[in-house]
Each structure stands twice: as structure tokens, then as C-alpha cells.
Amino acid sequence: MPIIRRRSLGRIALLVLAVWNTSCRQEGRPFGTGDPVKDARASLARGDHRLLAGEYGWWPEVPGLPDNRFVADSIVRAHGMRIIVKMSDLITTDSERMLRDSSQAYAERYNATMLAAEGQR
After folding, report:
1. 3 state DSSP class of 4
2. How many CA atoms lie within 13 A of 37 on its CB side?
3. Distance of alpha carbon 62 from alpha carbon 54, whole angstroms
4. What is the pTM of this model?
5. Looking at the 3D structure of the chain, how many domains does it have?
6. Residue 90 domain-assigned?
7. Domain that holds residue 10
8. What is the pLDDT of residues 4-15, one digit of tens each?
9. Rounded average pLDDT over 43-53
10. Does residue 1 lie in a domain region?
11. CA-CA distance, 81 to 2, in Å (whole number)?
12. Rounded CA separation 79/27 (Å)
């Protein structure tokens, strides 16, 4: 069995992430076309009003909601949510940090577009 160096593992992880992201885009999940505004409008046109969330540990997090927990919970109950990424809250690699940051940024813009279209923002 060949010995894999640590630097090679990082490159392999980035390659896997790139392939996963491409396959998700092609299948229309979780990052859709890569344009959160366009994807949110397409979801609304299909009648899908769910907000996007990431699960980073034990609880789902819905980016872009108000800080008031009562208001945020009522918005999630009204719209529902769809988990786009599940991962540990313990980030150990740069690729995990990139996935978390990119999924949060995408979900925040997507959710803001959904709420603005429905007059809730």
C-alpha cells in the first residue's frame, strides 16, 4: 500500500470537494446553479418556500435570519427548511472551513432573497 503524504491528503480533499460541488450543481442540490438569487427565485417559481440551513454539529443553523430567536423560529416554522450540508462543528482542515463558509454565504443570500420576495425582510 503506498504511503500518502499529508500534503497529498489535502489535495485529495480539495479534489473531492470540487467534484462533490460540481455534482451538486449538476443535480440541482444543495448549491443549485451556484447563484443563490437565481436559485431562490427558481424555488419560489416551483412553489418551494423552504429556507436553506446547514447542520454544523447538533443543531441546524439558518443563516440570514433576525437575531430575535422567537421571530427566527416563527419564520422557519412558516417556511420550513432544507439542510444543504451536514458536518461537524469541529473544523480541522482548510477544506472543511471552505465548505462551511461557502455554504453559509450561499444560504444567507438565498434566504435573504426568499424573505425579501415574500416581504419578510
Report:
1. coil
2. 1
3. 7
4. 0.69
5. 1
6. yes
7. 6-117
8. 555 554 554 444
9. 94
10. no
11. 44
12. 23
